[in-house]
Specification:
By secondary structure, the chain is of the alpha/beta class. The protein has one domain: Rossmann fold, CATH 3.40.50.880. The protein is about 25% helix and about 20% strand. Strands 1-4-3-5-6-2-11-12-15 form a nine-stranded mixed β-sheet, with helices on both faces. The chain has a six-stranded mixed β-sheet with strand order 9-10-13-14-16-17. The longest helix has 11 residues. The chain starts with a helix and ends in a 5-residue tail after the last strand. The N terminus is likely disordered.
Amino acid sequence: MTTRSGLLRTCRRLAGQGIMTAGLALLLATQPAAIAGTRKPASTASYSYFATGNPDAAVSAPSTLNAPSFVLMGGGPDVDEAFRWMIDRAGITPKTGGRFVVIRATGTEAYNPYIYYSNDASSTSSPPAELWVGGAALGLSSVETLVIPSIEAANDETVNAIVGRANAVFIAGGDQADYIRYWKGTRLDGTLKSLMAKNIPLGGTSAGLAVLGQFDYAALNGTVTSKQALSNPYNKYMTLDPAPPAPTGGFIAPPALANLITDSHLDSRDRMGRLFAFVARLVRPDGSTGCSGGILPAGGGTGTARGIGIAVETALLVQGDRAGVTARRVTNPSTSTESAVYFVRPLNPPTACLDGKPLTMTTVEVQKLTDSGTVFNLGEWSGLKPRTFDAVSGELTASPY
């Protein structure tokens, strides 16, 4: 028999996918404390709005912060500590209050109770090490979810007012093609960029992670496998944003994550090969090397093409500080996965990168982060022991995992 605690643990692990089982929905519906202060969807056909806590409470958390903060999460079970870190970086305390807003194009309000409450008794007291984030105990006034499934909704005045007053914003998983099609170039895009300019913490998981680099894998024609990407880096599934790559015109495109493209579920879905291909597509042509449409150099200097791949149940906490832009990795205490982050950059440009032909790109540097004590310097791209790998005629010659 599934226990109440077990169902609620499942809620945490499925929040990023927007999945709520019938049993879990019934369970929450029979627990008044768990849904106290939760609003029903807004009375509009264009979007849905849910709030847990008191979104109308007076908030004195800072509206502008001194340094940027980003959570890059690799999908699968959400990492509790990453949300607590966002709350802390937002300057939210029990004295200030604060609003945490989740945005998505599909799914449910499953993040609301997970982020707001502290345990399976729907407590707002001290959060445990896992299971619930405990946002109310840390100072959150509310957790609000907006399901924004259209250009119309992304341009809606109320939607942008809710997002615009957020103290932290998280982009849920789903399909990044929806975010590019529905949100890019809209009023919502501008609202997110305005918040980013004020250094309001911003995070995303899976599809939400995919749109947090300067360059994005847009998946406009569906997903791509490593085999497909390596065998033809210009196949119809290899859709990037901006297209073709450009120094401006991307969706969100945080300056702290310049020259980067990201990918999630690295280990569980064997995506290292396609991350190599994504990064290769960014390398500018120079005679017989590089990739058509690329705009960045390869090599070890600044401004070179780079990629970050993140495994499931793994979060990379990126922050600006006196050392520049640094990052560290966190995961859940109970995880049984390796929870790795991979930092990828080609030291040499591709020697074969043509439409319809397999990719060859040798001496690709990979730095692998598997602990929470190491601080990686994103600006200098250093902090770990690098290894190099090759993609030859559409095949990786060794496994970087």
